[in-house]
């Protein structure tokens, strides 16, 4: 019986050792399941954040394209406004030159007319003086 009792004790020891090992493996399995669940939650959270970030990048890309188009439009309008301004400045300069030329022409015409009138008046005055001197000279005789 001794051998049988030792065999039972050995079997009981092995059973207890196996039971402890089984409990340790079950505990480790539970810890691994908890870690897996936590990892899955983290993955889902990261996927959600990635989706939000992707959406935000898409929105910002659309905004960048829109702002780029608006900038091009404003630059085009600015170039058009500059060209119109340059045309207006050149037109004003041309009109200023034309006005100066017209004033010079008017001045020349007025000078010519004044000179002509003065010449006519001088001629009339000389004629009058000649006539007057003729009559004065003839009354002396």
Strand fraction band? under 5%
Largest sheet entry: none
Q: Separation of termini?
A: 203 Å
Name the assembly state: single chain
Round the Cα radius of gyration to an integer and report it. Answer: 59 Å
Low-confidence stretches: none
Shape: rod-shaped
Helix content: over 70%
From the helix content, strand content and strand pairing, which structural class follows? mainly alpha
Give the total of beta strands: 0
Number of helices: 1
Please, what is the average pLDDT?
A: 92
Could you state the order of secondary-structure elements as H and E?
Answer: H
Task: Give a written overview of the molecule.
The protein is an all-alpha fold and 141 residues long. The protein is 99% helix and 0% strand. 0% of the residues are buried.
List the helices and strands and how they pair.
Blueprint: H1 2-140
Describe the structure in brief.
The protein contains 1 helix and no strands. By secondary structure, it is mostly helical.
